[in-house]
């Protein structure tokens, strides 16, 4: 990592998994630990950036020296990101954002006695924060903002995984997409990660494997190389 190469740059990182409430005691969540996003925030800080970490639910402590903004649901994250993106140079969307949320949030605990043997949940689509930012950018907003997305997929075949990544970066309108394979034992709670970074044309610009901190630095290298 080139020390100080992000000096004075404003970097916003989202990390962790969102939680969508069902009732006062339950939520729909995901297995994201926030480790990779937190490592990116820490690495950007170490390289001199002014870092805002927009944290959904994290299993690790946020790094020292960053501005912390907490957001629990996809819609809270959307508001925090929209605010922070306005004066950011780089936005890295590493958070695992719920694609759907319960259509109704019940204001007292759902009781099995009142439900019988099955309980049906109705879900509605959340805003796609990254895709909306990509679309705003295409319309001329956020000039100068570098937009980086993540794609966590369970697809075991590498070629198919990359194909999904290429379709996703086109759909989202990001500058870079970090593709990683996740599964029951891969990607989430572990300290290691293995990623492929695609550019807007769908070409591989970087492949990195190792600790989440070393992968974070390779991702930042790819962002710096865009200039
Ligand atoms: O479509 P998918 O969830 O695989 O896309 C992953 C990327 O899009 C991540 O960068 C994630 O933070 C972002 N995302 C988002 N809003 C959503 C879902 C995902 O910004 N509702």
TrEMBL record:
In what residue span(s) does the DNA/pantothenate metabolism flavoprotein C-terminal domain sit? 6-225
- Write down the EC number: 4.1.1.36, 6.3.2.5
Q: Kindly indicate whether the keyword Magnesium belongs to this entry.
A: yes
Give GO MF terms, alphabetically.
phosphopantothenate--cysteine ligase activity; phosphopantothenoylcysteine decarboxylase activity
Provide the cofactor list for this protein: FMN; Mg(2+)
Keywords in alphabetical order: Decarboxylase, Flavoprotein, FMN, Ligase, Lyase, Magnesium, Metal-binding, Multifunctional enzyme
Keyword match Lyase: yes
Give me the residues that bind CTP, please: 99, 109, 127-130, 150, 168, 172
Q: Where is this region: Phosphopantothenate--cysteine ligase?
A: 11-227
| Co-factor: note | Binds 1 FMN per subunit.
Provide the catalytic activity annotation. (R)-4'-phosphopantothenate + L-cysteine + CTP = N-[(R)-4-phosphopantothenoyl]-L-cysteine + CMP + diphosphate + H(+); N-[(R)-4-phosphopantothenoyl]-L-cysteine + H(+) = (R)-4'-phosphopantetheine + CO2
Pathway field of the UniProt record reads: Cofactor biosynthesis; coenzyme A biosynthesis; CoA from (R)-pantothenate: step 3/5; Cofactor biosynthesis; coenzyme A biosynthesis; CoA from (R)-pantothenate: step 2/5
The UniProt similarity line reads: In the N-terminal section; belongs to the HFCD (homo-oligomeric flavin containing Cys decarboxylase) superfamily.
Q: What does this protein do?
A: Catalyzes two steps in the biosynthesis of coenzyme A. In the first step cysteine is conjugated to 4'-phosphopantothenate to form 4-phosphopantothenoylcysteine, in the latter compound is decarboxylated to form 4'-phosphopantotheine.
**Name the UniProt record assigns to this protein:** Coenzyme A biosynthesis bifunctional protein CoaBC
Which organism is the protein's source?
Leifsonia stereocauli
Part of the whole protein covered? 183 to 409 of 409
């Amino acid at each position: 990592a080139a020390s100080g190469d992000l000096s004075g740059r404003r970097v916003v990182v989202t990390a962790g998994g969102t939680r969508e409430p069902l009732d006062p005691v339950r939520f729909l969540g995901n297995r994201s630990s926030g480790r990779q996003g937190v490592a990116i925030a820490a690495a950007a800080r170490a390289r001199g950036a002014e870092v805002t970490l927009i944290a959904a639910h994290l299993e690790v402590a946020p790094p020292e020296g960053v501005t912390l903004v907490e957001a629990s649901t996809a819609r809270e994250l959307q508001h925090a990101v929209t605010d922070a993106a306005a004066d950011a140079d780089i936005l890295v969307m590493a958070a695992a954002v719920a694609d759907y949320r319960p259509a109704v949030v019940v204001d007292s605990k759902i009781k099995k006695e009142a439900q019988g043997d099955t309980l049906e949940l109705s879900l509605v689509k959340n805003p796609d924060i990254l895709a909306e930012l990509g679309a705003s950018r295409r319309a001329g907003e956020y000039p100068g903002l570098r937009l980086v997305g993540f794609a966590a997929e369970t697809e075991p075949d590498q070629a198919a995984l990359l194909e999904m990544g290429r379709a996703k970066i086109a759909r989202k309108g990001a500058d870079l997409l970090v593709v990683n394979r996740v599964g029951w034992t891969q990607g989430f709670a572990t300290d290691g990660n293995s990623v492929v970074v695609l550019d807007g044309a769908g070409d591989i610009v970087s492949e990195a494997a190792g600790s989440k901190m070393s992968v974070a630095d390779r991702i930042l290298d790819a962002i710096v190389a865009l200039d």
